[in-house]
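Field guide to reading this record: the first block holds the primary sequence, the second block holds the structure written as discrete tokens, and the final block holds curator observations. Each block starts with its own label. This record concerns Putative zinc finger, SWIM-type, catalogued under organism Helianthus annuus.

BLOCK 1 — SEQUENCE
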Amino acid sequence: MSVLTNLLSMLCCYGFLLDNLFRSVPCPNVSVIDWGVTRWEVVLDERTCTCRVWQVKGIPCLHAAAFIAFTRDINWEKFVDSYFTIEKFECALKVAHMPTKDQWVHIDAEEKIYPPTIKRLPRRPRKNRIRANDEQRKKYKCRRCGGYGHQQK
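BLOCK 2 — STRUCTURE
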């Protein structure tokens, strides 16, 4: 079973960056990771973490990757779900065959289908245009003090 290589490299990077954040519990495959006031418990045998990312995605979360890196276990493949193996990826590609244009079903329609007509919105049109987020706004100068950010009439 071989896991996709970019996934393995990502997990290794996360694990070795964070492997100093945890403290061990008497069980060899259980750990508690502390980050500030937050705490996560990782159980390697059950593939669980209290953040629940590992159970949902099937990929070890940051906390689990830190603990796996600390145990110096080189075989990351046994902690990743079988869904991420190359064999499953190739299987998915075989099933998802898209037909070419000559295999499309041809339907003879009696009348031509046109796009929907565009209706004018039932409100007064905008007076000013909508400005882009990166567009600079005009700065007004105060007539009384000469400062920017406010204006006195």
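BLOCK 3 — OBSERVATIONS
Helices lie at 5-18, 53-57, 62-70, 86-95.
The mean pLDDT is 76.
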